[in-house]
Amino acid sequence: YTDLAIETYRKAIELQNNFPDAYCNLANALKEKGMVKDAEDCYNTALKLAPTHADSLNNLANIKREQGFIEEATRLYLKALEVFPEFAAAHSNLASVLQQQGKLQDALAHYKEAIRIQPSFADAYSNMGNTLKEMQDIQGAQTCYQRAIQINPAFADAHSNLASIHKDCGNIPEAIQSYRTALKLRSDFPDAYCNLVHCLQIICDWSDYEDRMQKLVRIVADQLEKNRLPSVHPHHSMLYPLSHEQRKQIAAKHASMCAEKITILHK
């Protein structure tokens, strides 16, 4: 399907090579296929033809954010909103980069704006919940996650986020239920799986214990190998049959994530 879309948009450009929408659509298809550099070039071409093409500004900003160029992404989102102030996705995307920079009040304002424009924006509700959780507003976060699930019952991230609230509040049976729902919706969900395993340990549920441990160790080994943040928290690592080396690596990854957050906050 993506290949067909790419071919179709390329033909459209051959017929009319000054049409920014076609370049933007081609870029979207290229990005979906993992051809990020080509996608970036196409968004830039669209913006050369039409510097105020809001979709291209927003989508190019998404690429910059994924590449870690937060300031450039912020500039592009703001430009997209200057062009089109009622652009819900750009408000939500800008909110997430502001959240990343620790500008939580500003992030909250843009999530609220995204939801005002598009009241059924489940992603914005779930991400706003994450911001409120960071601000220690647990009740507000829970309400956001529940609203996201109400809008989209198949939203695995929102179920997992709600589960984490239950877990932090000590409501372990509710947490287990929500993690299980998240995993039914998305079987490959390391964070939800590792948190579920921890909840089962808390209530001393030893059913399938060996299988659970093997799967958890596999997940952590894979994450460490791929240089990703492990789904097991450093001070939970002693609960599982991990090697001392793995425990040290888990602690190091989480420590460097905290250090990065502090660096961003001090910028």
UniProtKB/TrEMBL annotation:
Task: Return the TPR repeat spans.
Answer: 20-53, 54-87, 88-121, 122-155, 156-189
Q: Which GO terms describe its biological process?
A: protein O-linked glycosylation
The EC number on file is 2.4.1.255
Q: For the O-GlcNAc transferase C-terminal domain, which residue ranges apply?
A: 203-267
**PROSITE patterns in the record:** TPR, TPR_REGION
* Pfam families according to UniProt: Glyco_transf_41, TPR_10, TPR_11
Its protein name is protein O-GlcNAc transferase
Protein's organism:
Lepidocyrtus cyaneus (Springtail)
